[in-house]
Amino acid sequence: MNNFVWKCPTRLVFGKDVIETVADHIKAEKGTNVLLVYGGGSIKKNGIYDKVVSSLKGAGIRYTELSGVQPNPRLSLVLEGIGIVKREKIDFILAVGGGSVIDTAKAISFGSALEDGRDIWEDLFMKAGSVPPKGIGVGVVLTIPAAGSEMSNSCVISNEKTGYKRGVNHENNYPAFAVIDPQVCYSLPPYQTACGSADMLSHMMERYFTPTSNVDITDAILEGAMRTVITYGPLAYRNPKVYEYREQLMLAGTLAHNNLFGCGRVQDWASHWMEHELSAFYDIAHGAGLAIMTPAWMKYVYKENIPRFVQFAVNVMGSRMSIADQEKTALDGIARLEAWFKSMGLPTSFSDAKIPTDKIETMAKHVLEGGRTAAGGLRKLYHDDIVRIYKIAAEAGKE
Prior knowledge:
Blueprint: E1 11-14, H1 22-28, E2 33-38, H2 42-45, H3 48-58, E3 62-66, H4 75-88, E4 92-97, H5 99-112, H6 120-125, E5 137-142, E6 156-159, E7 164-167, E8 177-180, H7 190-208, H8 216-238, H9 243-255, H10 270-282, H11 286-301, H12 306-315, H13 326-343, H14 360-367, H15 383-395
Parallel strand pairs: 1-8, 2-3, 2-4, 4-5, 5-8
Antiparallel strand pairs: 6-7
């Protein structure tokens, strides 16, 4: 196990009807003038908007609204939000939504604190290892379990003008609190449940597939969490209004990305980097893109550490151990993962998602721009490796 420092200052407020307490948590953070950030009309249809606004009004908290956040959140809306924060003297941001809304709120927060003359995109998102300034506080009312941004230090934004999708990871990005009521998921379309399950599972796999030895404690936690998603993702997909299914899945998604599971181990993240280019170019849902890229990555790198892929196959996917042929066991685990994605209607190839192959070279080039030298932690991947993985994804299902 490697040395590590773990910090997660986000206050987690979890359970039935906790949305009604959101104003209390804003007041605890000294918030008096709030920017309310959300996506489209879904939170107004399912009643979440009314509950949030009622809580704010009841506490005498002023608020200004910024709606229109899209999946693969856009830089243009971030810039609009920064302007509102400065003009209206906003002192707190409340994100009501999923990962795209939360990441938009985070970017608005640190973007509004950026020194004059610095460009949020070029100076932060396009520079590996950049440090964002500490902005005003951000709170979350989570409506879509998937990205885990409600309790993480990450923030991912798409620049619609350049076609790049990039992230800024730093402890300054942790939300002050996350209010999570599993009941809000009852109205989620099945495909969103499937994409969210794939996303949270991927956050676990990016940490699980490591070259670091003697990580038994986090292996055990990860395997249990992955089995939870494997079990409850399909159950929630088919039975959307069962609270017990939703609470298991929602908590799993939140814990998947606060990096407790990654303590002391080298992490990978190549599948995420490659998927970011898919969703930047083709606007595919992030979870759907991960269902395509993760098995393709596995097929390319599994020989780098066959025992770990065997461990995943047996302990997570339920494969039977073949002592005589460990490679067969490893490949069975990958096949079972692909089948699990397909069972919830997710694509596992370019053709499934109607993605053309003409931009493979360009996407591979983008992956390693912005100060990056290689992708991956289990195995370092360079341009030619990334091209081959994209081609595996393109050819999946045609074998």
